[in-house]
Amino acid sequence: MTIAAKFEIEYLQYLDAEGKQVRDDLPEFAKDLGHMVELYKLMLSTRVFDAKSIALQRTGKLGTYASCLGHEAAHVGIGSAMKPEDVYAPSYREYGAQLYRGVQPREVYMYWGGDERGNDYQKEPARHDFAWSVPIATQCLHAAGSALAFKIRGEKRVAVCTIGDGGSSKGDFYGAINIAGAQNLPLVCVIVNNQWAISVPRKIQSGAPTLAQKGIAAGLFSIQVDGNDIIAVRKAMEDALERARSGKGGSVIEAVTYRLGDHTTADDARRYRGEQEVKDGWDKEPMKRLRNWLVAKGVWDDAKEEAWKAECDEWMDNEVNAYLETKTQPVSAMFDYIFAEVPADLAKQRDYVLSLETKGH
Amino acid sequence: MAQITLIEAVTQALAYEMAHDDSVVVLGEDVGVNGGVFRATQGLQEKFGELRVLDTPLDETTIAGVTVGLAVQGMKPVAEAQFEGFIYPMMEQIACHAARMRNRTRGRLTVPAVWRAPWGGGIRAPEHHSEANEHLFTNIPGLRVVMPSSPARAYGLLLAAIRDPDPVMFFEPKRIYRQYKEEVPDDGEALPLDVCFVLRDGTDVTLVTWGAQVKEALEAADELASQGISAEVIDVATLTPLDFDTIAESVQKTGRCVIVHEAPKTAGFGAEIAARLAEECMYDLLAPVERVTGFDTHIPLFRLEMKYLPSVERVVDAAKRTLAAS
Q1: What does the pLDDT look like over B224-268, one tens digit per residue?
Q2: ipTM of this predicted complex?
Q3: Shortest CA distance to A254 belongs to which of A173, A344, A320?
Q4: Which of A113, A151, B7, B173 lies 20 to 30 angstroms, CA to CA, from A92?
């Protein structure tokens, strides 16, 4: 038999569900325990932020909200590995990555609270990142196009996009990794496989034993990691970013995690999945293992946990207040950003709406 | 100065802008060494290299989405849809992202991109190669929909489209790609977007059209003139945002209007112009507005396609009906 090509998918994990280190060759960043504590703190603040968001929604102060509960290691691992000059194209729940890059909680609240200004990220480097992309996987091609721009201009920057397991079924994802392979683009595409696309489980998305292997068809470096182990996610990201930056091509990383919450606040996951599965998900969740590991290293304890949670609560309260105090945009704002300048024909419609305002409609 | 065709004017505009602005890139299927299936990008790859004239994988979704990404990063991509009938897979990227990126981000991110597409029927092409779908795009806020009708307007409007800070759909009437030549100075002078062009002055009836039908409208005006009827001909050129004022001024003068377009009648862009005339020019009208359009059928394969496309005779008949009515 002649073999035309042969492939394998590596699975990467450093910490098991209990926080026991399963391999000795820790990457450099993980030997810096101060840095690991910083990553843990951001994961924890992301979780506090998420709980606050859901509380806001439940009390009618936020529209539909997509929770990131359980994705903290994957998201913080992605965001913390990127350089400021890189570009991030998220879907709509990667707050851990975005907070690291300067998106403010108040901006997340504004977006889900019905105000486009939530997408006008004020702080760099988030300011040059893409906004949330609701149409599934479409952002993969924006990242590929960005990567092409970097290649054309000879810039050593990388475009990173994230999608879910469901997103890996879409043509936009295949198109992005395909052109990244064909043009050797600096693209890193992370499939955050949380097992559920609303009510449809991972096994219905694809017959492929891993989603990572889809990258192989495109000629990209492809790896599956424990998405609840931030060391594994961060290591795979660092390697992928380095390869892309040095002109060695793009990567697909499948981060295997679990969506502990509903798809959004408009969803009720009890309709389609059992309690035992969710309980198993909680057993493997990302915070506990990193906390156990840091506690065993002697750099974290209950007192620090409580103190940091209190700081996060205060931070989020500030952000919530800033959000709640934000005045609704003037009605003319719906016309002001359709084109660089409002065309005459559109200005007539704007003036009509403004006249209704002055009449008190 | 050389006389050039409409398709050569497209090439000339692309070459001019690429030579003067490094951020302009061309991408699509077969746009590279082959120069595009209609030769719109002939010679560009040789001049500007494989990265700035990029042959993409054969996936329209990829072309459209990569174009959005390029534009957000400050490039000025000019993407080619090989035929307008192949544009459907591009529509999600165009409608959900290109057209609303500025609005979604309150102006933080923008998409200064152009999508070119050979448009319309009349070249005896296979199925799916003859579509006229401008109306699918004129209802999308945030998009400009532009259609040239002569070599000079193809050159000037394409330059304007590339320089525009917002996304532009640039539909090229391929039936008149090589219909005639005219002098088009390669001086980099753009024509204005968002305005209609009055191509012929008249007093009795206004013929409003765009793209390849400008030819039929002008011929109809000649025929009407031979019968003593003076027709004004307006090339809409930029469908959205619409310069309705120019149409209104003409109809206020003539009192009669015939709208001519190739796309199906129902909810075609002619319906919008007719509605605006009803709203804003009702009392100027001396006769009901006429529409001469494709039918509410798929454009037939080529043995019947000329029966589908508006003909000079249909335009003349419609104009005479408006005169008979008043």
Answers
A1: 999 999 999 999 999 999 999 999 999 999 999 999 999 999 999
A2: 0.97
A3: A173
A4: A151
